[in-house]
């Protein structure tokens, strides 16, 4: 399709109160939508904050010799250690990004985890 025609159509559309315009001729077609024609994105509100695995590795609730049991409903403070992800070269601490209550605990001791996998959900 001719770019000059496309420019003319879009310029014309700006002068009207139309939200969208469709045009077809000789097997070619064009569809132009203004910002008003686009649907509003959905806005969700959630009181849960996900705590994701910082690396690919093995999840441990605590270092060897220490005992840390995390249960749903337990209160945590921002900065509390929720465990570590052990990789070949290093241990990555997992800390609570917010204060609140643990509502969902998906982390399992000794389980492999992927980067970005939600391990906990904290309700603010």
From TrEMBL:
Top-level taxon in the UniProt lineage: Bacteria
CDD domains assigned to the protein according to its UniProt record, in alphabetical order: biotinyl_domain
Domain Lipoyl-binding, first and last residues per copy: 50-121
Record's protein name: Lipoyl-binding domain-containing protein
Organism: Candidatus Avelusimicrobium gallicola
């Amino acid at each position: 399709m001719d770019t000059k025609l496309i420019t003319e159509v879009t310029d014309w559309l700006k002068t009207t109160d139309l939200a969208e315009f469709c045009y077809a001729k000789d097997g070619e077609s064009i569809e132009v939508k203004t910002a008003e024609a686009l649907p509003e994105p959905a806005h969700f509100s959630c009181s849960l904050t996900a705590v994701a695995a910082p690396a690919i590795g093995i999840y441990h609730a605590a270092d060897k010799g220490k005992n840390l049991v995390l249960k749903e409903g337990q209160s945590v403070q921002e900065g509390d250690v929720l465990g570590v992800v052990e990789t070949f070269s290093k241990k990555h601490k997992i800390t609570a990004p917010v204060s609140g209550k643990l509502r969902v605990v998906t982390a399992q001791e000794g389980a492999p985890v992927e980067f970005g996998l939600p391990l906990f959900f904290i309700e603010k």
